[in-house]
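Subject: Sanity check before I submit

Could someone independently write out the structure tokens for this chain? I want to compare against mine line by line before I put it in a report. The sequence has 288 residues.
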Amino acid sequence: MIDSNLFESSLKTLGLIEVNLDSATAINEAAYQSYIKIFYLPKGYEITVDFGRHETLQPSLLFVAPNQFLKIDKVGEQAGHLIFYNRDFYCIEIHDAEVACDGLLFNNIQNMPLVRVGEKDNAFVSYLFGQMQDEFQLNDVSLEEMIRTYLKQVLIKATRMWKSEHLDNILADQNGDLEFYRKFTLLVDANYRNKHSVADYADLLCMAPKTITHKCKRLNLPQPNEIIKNRIVLEAKRLLIHTALTAKEIAYDLGYEDPAYFSRLFLAKTGTSPSGFRSGYRSKSIAQ
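---
Independent answer below. Compare away.
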């Protein structure tokens, strides 16, 4: 891990580092994989998160969960910032009453981790990162709480910008449906290995399957069954690329007793078989 502004106390860790040509290689390595990561980048960066490539055409915030594959492919002319921290420092579940943003920014089922920062919001976001930088320089006894306060403001501000960018303005005000979506995506992310049907999640949410379908439709989201299957296939892709597990072993790992059924699902969602996806991805990587 490269030098950074680092806070460590008991099991809690948070760091703030500059993103530039020198640090990008280290950030791409495994040392940062276990951390929750928030990038604040100017234009000109290209980053791969899982199997989606994102380019910053303007100042942007990028949110990466610990289990997601990350690679900085191109560094812009200006330096950016990276906050990395563990759940012991800040856990959305624990602070749920204060900031309800997990499921919208991190591990987003729709794979939209990039939030573009408009001109009017850029000054405020820059201020928050600047204040965190100043806190590390002060190194006061209140460092932990001050940094956590600024981090919370980044998450709240980014959640508002995400809703404005990805949801219709009227729908973005439907807090009940957004809260449902957040809970639904959290449940899918926690249970996709053993719960594969909308009815399974309807039981967990104490509502009818049709209600879930109607709420997703009001938010212009895919059908809930597609959200569940997309999460399963995303994990299958990760396992195919980043492990040596066979397609049959991956099927069992994802809760499918019939590997052939799983292979048909993967083919329907991706247009290729699990083995074809693995070989195609490796061939593409070698060519690059």
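---
OP: Matches mine. For the report I'm noting this point. The radius of gyration is 20 Å.
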